[in-house]
Design a protein that fits this description.
Elements lengths: L9 H19 L4 H22 L6 H8 L9 H21 L7 H12 L19 E2 L6 E3 L7 H13 L6 H15 L6 H15 L11 H6 L1 H13 L5 H35 L3 H13 L2 E2 H7 L5 H13 L3 E5 L7 E5 L12
Antiparallel strand pairs: 1-2, 3-5, 4-5
Helix pairs in contact: 1-11, 2-4, 4-5, 4-8, 5-8, 6-7, 7-8, 7-11, 10-11, 11-12
């Protein structure tokens, strides 16, 4: 049986507390279904974009957004596009599995991998198949081999041990289980390619099954992608410390805690905006203006126009003028033209109901 070694230190305990508080908020908060749907779609796109970018795709976020919406984008690599869109099929499997009562199995992990890499780069990654050759992990800049995974003959037994451990009734916190599962699959490196993407979806499965789906509003791969050296250092540090997982788990829960803190803050903004919008019968554009200012502190009309490009500038000006007249916004002008006009929250937006109401 797999026997992970780690120490639950003050840093991990603090971040787990933050995660639990965010979970409690998201479960109790009255968030509109439209907002949750929009934010979960946003999180899914960001996860698909960043998890594939970590593995070498060269799509920009704007290109990924267009492709995700079903638009064609010229000048993109067909394999990059397929990897991005494959993520959606793999994620759908994760959601479907988490809704059932079947334990995590090798069949599930192999199917996740199959969906991720099918039709990509001539299927050299051998979709859904354990590797039968030795592979290596090298430094992308120097070419130096930094890790040699177990020999291919050991892969079936190691994968069986992993899924048996995931089925085992343990007192380990579910968030830590997800982090351990992610590291262990990367450590075994059971596939020719696509191990990183598969491992990150495996950790998602573990979280969802344990009731930690956080309304599907989070993305961890963006956290990894922001500072890839720190991500790789956290993984490699486990091997340098004789497979002590403490450092990796510190990094993993820190990332999840930071991401969920941002989600919680966006949720609080959405609730405050919803209270104001209902009280003053604001339209969608006016509500978006209130949300923008609560998030960024100030708003220029160009910021609102970027969200509603199909709406005329004159209409947006009327929307903002109405908010000023009702005391919901204050206009701060440094000139007479639109670019010199900025808006901040007025006194009419105070007195919001508490987040749980």
């Amino acid at each position: 049986m797999l026997t992970p070694r780690f120490t639950i230190n003050n840093s991990i305990t603090r971040d787990l507390t933050t995660i639990e508080r965010a979970r409690g908020f998201l479960e109790a908060a009255t968030l509109s279904e439209d907002w949750v749907r929009q934010m979960s779609q946003r999180a899914l796109l960001l996860e698909a974009h960043h998890t594939t970018q970590i593995e070498g795709t060269r799509l920009t976020l704007d290109q990924s957004r267009q492709l995700w919406a079903g638009e064609s984008v010229s000048g993109t690599d067909v394999d990059d596009v397929r990897e991005l869109l494959n993520y959606r099929a793999a994620f759908e499997l994760v959601v479907e599995h988490a809704a059932g009562d079947q334990p995590i199995s090798e069949i599930l992990i192999r199917e996740i991998h199959r969906r991720l890499v099918t039709g990509v780069r001539g299927e050299a990654a051998q979709p859904g198949m354990y590797r039968i050759t030795q592979n290596f992990i090298a430094n992308s800049r120097t070419g130096e081999v930094v890790y040699t995974p177990p020999p291919p003959g050991d892969v079936p037994d190691l994968m069986r041990e992993l899924v048996e451990w995931l089925r085992f009734d343990t007192a380990v916190h579910p968030v830590l289980i997800a982090g351990i599962a992610q590291f262990q699959l990367v450590h075994i490196h059971p596939f020719v390619d696509g191990n990183g993407r598969t491992s990150r979806l495996l950790s998602t499965v573990c979280l969802y099954r344990a009731g930690y789906d956080f309304r599907r509003l989070f993305t961890l791969s963006e956290y990894y992608d922001r500072n890839r050296p720190a991500f790789y250092t956290a993984l490699q540090g486990v091997r340098e410390r004789d497979l002590d997982l403490t450092g990796w788990l510190e990094y993993f829960v820190d990332g999840l805690a930071k991401e969920l803190t941002e989600v919680k803050q966006r949720g609080e903004v959405a609730i405050r905006t919803d209270v104001v919008a209902r009280r003053h019968r604001l339209n969608a554009r006016q509500a978006a203006a209130i949300t923008w200012i609560q998030t960024h502190g100030t708003l220029a009309i160009s910021g609102l126009f970027g969200q509603f490009p199909e709406i005329t500038r004159r209409t947006l000006q009327r929307d903002l003028k109405s908010l000023v007249e009702r005391g919901l916004l204050l206009e701060i002008s440094t000139g007479t033209t639109d670019p010199n006009r900025h808006y901040v929250l007025g006194k009419g937006t105070s007195g919001h109901a508490p987040a749980g109401e």
